[in-house]
Amino acid sequence: MREFSFLIASAVGSAAVAAAARWFPTVRARLRALRLGAPPPSLLDRIDAIVCDCDGVLFAHGTALPGVPEAVGALRRAGKRLLFVTNSATQSRRSLCAKLSALGYGGVLEADCITSASATAGYLHAHYPHVRTAYCVGEQGLLDELALVGIRASGPADTGGMQALVDERFADAPPGEVDAVVVGLQMERLCYARLAKASAYARDRSRPFIATNLDENWPAGVGVVLPAGGACVRFVAYAAERAPDVNVGKPSRELARLLVRLYALDPRRTLMVGDRCNTDVAFGRSVGMRTLLVLSGCHTLADALNGPAECFPDFVLPSLDDLAAHHCPQAAA
Ligand SMILES: [Mg+2]
């Protein structure tokens, strides 16, 4: 009889656990929705600096998002310091600054821009000072930033496929000519030879293997999100049977701490604005910043509600334009 009672109790317990597991995500999302919303009117009174992600917040595929250049101007006139931090490794600080200016974002300084390319160059320079050459999967912005810290990047010459590797006798290449492997998003002329070489070099675990960022996708402005830097990193890591030593880009806490130190920010008086929960929101939260998810890029309200706690934003708005419109309308004039 005792065994029978135990079996009944176990069955009921298992059913309860299974039901709880089934309903937990829905209950959690509804509870979160109750405390998620627009920032309170007094928020900007307590904010000195706004750290803006770029893709999906300021622009999408080379076009400024409607009303956002004016919003950034209004926030600046309201006395807020604006910093621009992007996980894009295709941009150098200089090219990002030029792009923002060309899109109508006035008063942007190169010194107020950080890209994952510049962060990667800074990281290599600080942590691996012996590195003089790096094999790169990435665009010109990454190569330019590496050059500024004295690192010669190879890779752009590799534009072929398997036959190019055979013709070059790559398998016979002498070791030691590459000190590190750096992988980020490459959109143009990405080919098998470049990915294969990066993977082959990364298989030697004595070489640092650096990921500029791990973003899965980005809002390309073509109706669907497209593969981002993390997709290139995954290719190389999978083939090399090795994870990157470090992800330099958001949500790296080290990058967040560097940002705080570099610009003397008080995290409690800083607002991180982004369109991705697992990079921008997690990045801001890692050092105690307030976080605002804008729905003008990658992630949706459902993504925020159903994601892990460390990626849950303090506030959600449709666009950065809404922050300025609601909180500093006098400055928007
Ligand atoms: Mg973004």
Automatic annotation (TrEMBL):
Cofactor(s) it depends on: Mg(2+)
Any Pfam family hit: Hydrolase_6
Residues of the active site: D53, D55
The organism's place on the tree of life at top rank: Eukaryota
GO cellular component terms, A-Z: cytoplasm
Binding residues for Mg(2+): D53, D55, D275
Cofactor binding notes: Divalent metal ions. Mg(2+) is the most effective.
Keyword Hydrolase: yes
Binding site for substrate: K250
Keyword terms of this UniProt record: Hydrolase, Magnesium, Metal-binding
Keyword set includes Magnesium: yes
Single GO molecular function: metal ion binding
Name under which the protein is recorded: Phosphoglycolate phosphatase
Organism: Diacronema lutheri (Unicellular marine alga)
Lineage of source species: Eukaryota, Haptista, Haptophyta, Pavlovophyceae, Pavlovales
